[in-house]
Design brief:
Helix content: 40-55%
Shape: globular
Mean pLDDT: 96
CATH architecture of the largest domain: 3-Layer(aba) Sandwich
Largest sheet: 6 strands, mixed
Low-confidence stretches: none
Radius of gyration: 20 Å
CATH topology of the largest domain: Rossmann fold
Bound molecules: pyridoxal-5'-phosphate
Strand content: 15-25%
Strand order of the largest sheet: 3-4-14-9-10-13
């Protein structure tokens, strides 16, 4: 499938993006996004959209959410200058420390926001999907906090390779359901959560874990995750006295990246660079770099860029980091790449592992394998652009990756 858009239309999309006009009324980010769902879910999505509009505009709700961010999540998270890394790269490197947020990653910003919204909408129970288990843990914690039962769908393959997170979810009171269908990983878990939602659309609330899926999820998740970029901007001005020259974030579905980038989109002097999982190489099936190697198509309710073969069959992916191992990407990223406001690059498994070690040894920070991809790309960029100010979204901590890491030490 090819997009039929000329340069004039593209320039218009760029202008509208900078003016903050997306998503539009139809839930579209230019040609991308939208809502492709079964008829049985239409009432549930209408209710979600109306409720979302009501509460995101409600001063009391937003104040309550910010209170939870401050006192329960531990925000604002620190902005840390990295002196040794800076010296070694020939740059000034700043880290936005989402690894210091409760449960160890940025996922909690969205999970607590949506759990609070679920409560307001009168949901009796919450369902969520998880790949590596990070969103499952964040959802289980958030549901315990607001007092809603939580059921997490997780692929059977992931249950096996992420056992510690399965135990954490259960300890936090969630039920974990093993998904035996499809690829038995994240994509199958999302499909299964959607199916479960169809069976009880009004009493169940589905907390999606990334900036993906049918409208309004990509928008809703962006709203909750933008706290990362809003804080970063303010902290850069306070601590560095200026905005960064370039900002890096890793991209799986794209939630930490859109949260970091969105408040910088209008700052055209700031280069924004998203980093996907390059896996073992550029061949189909060897990576999870949807934007680098994918094509337009519909995946899990949205028109976006996906990894598929010539028959439109969704492709299995590979990445050393479970959190980036997904065959699609949020529709807003598809637009931002298309209009060339954000550049998307990829880092391979080996590069991520090396970057992770360097960060541990220079700054004493064990970052997540997902996040390490952003460091690998930033280092390359710093090589070509000396003496710049670089901001990196440190999306999570790496304790969860110890079993993978110990194989390589
Ligand atoms: C889940 C996860 C990611 C990838 O998800 P996005 O929605 O792309 O942010 C990245 N980093 C960490 C630490 C994660 O847990």
């Amino acid at each position: 499938m090819k997009l039929n858009i000329d340069d004039r239309q593209k320039a218009l999309l760029y202008k509208k993006t900078l003016a903050g006009e997306f998503p539009d009324e139809m839930g579209r980010f230019g040609p991308f996004g939208g809502r492709y769902i079964p008829e049985t879910l239409v009432p549930a999505f209408s209710r979600l959209e109306e409720g979302m509009k009501q509460y995101l505009d409600d001063k009391n709700f937003m104040e309550d959410w910010h209170k939870e961010l401050n006192h329960w999540v531990g925000r604002p998270t620190a902005l840390t200058f990295a002196p040794q890394l800076s010296q070694s790269w020939g740059a000034n490197v700043w880290l936005k420390r989402e690894d210091m947020a409760h449960t160890g990653a940025h996922k909690i910003n969205n999970a607590i926001g949506q759990a609070m919204l679920a409560k307001k909408l009168g949901a009796k129970r919450v369902i969520a999907e998880t790949g590596a288990g990070q969103h499952g843990v964040a959802s289980a914690a958030a549901c315990a906090r607001v007092g809603l039962p939580c059921c997490v769908y997780m692929g059977a393959v992931d249950i096996e390779r992420q056992a510690p997170n399965v135990d954490r979810m259960r300890q936090l009171g969630a039920e974990v359901v093993s998904v035996e269908s499809g690829d038995r990983t994240l994509r199958a878990a999302i499909d299964e959560a959607m199916r479960e939602w169809v069976s009880d659309p009004m009493d169940t609330y589905y907390i999606i874990g990334s900036a993906v899926g049918p409208h309004p999820y990509p928008f809703l998740v962006r709203e909750f995750q933008s706290v990362i970029g809003i804080e970063s901007k303010k902290q850069m001005l306070e601590q560095a006295g200026r905005l960064p020259d370039a900002v890096f974030a890793c991209v799986g579905g794209g939630s930490n990246a859109i949260g970091m980038f969105y408040p910088f989109i209008q700052e055209e002097d700031v280069e924004l660079i998203g980093v996907e999982a390059g896996g073992l190489g550029s061949g189909l099936g060897q990576n999870a770099a949807s934007l680098a190697t994918g094509t337009p198509g519909v995946l899990q309710g949205a028109f976006t860029i996906i990894l598929q073969n010539r028959d439109g069959q969704v492709q299995e992916t590979h990445s050393i980091s479970a959190g980036l191992d997904y065959s699609g990407v949020g529709p807003e990223h598809a637009l931002l790449q298309f209009i060339e406001r954000i550049q998307y690059v990829s880092a391979q498994d080996k590069e991520a592992l090396d970057a992770l070690s360097e960060l541990c040894q220079t700054e004493g920070i064990l970052t997540a394998l997902e996040t390490a991809h952003a460091f690998a790309a930033a280092k390359k960029w710093a090589d070509k652009n000396p003496n710049k100010n670089i901001l990196i979204g440190n999306s999570g901590r790496g304790d969860k990756d110890m079993s993978t890491l110990s194989k390589y030490i």
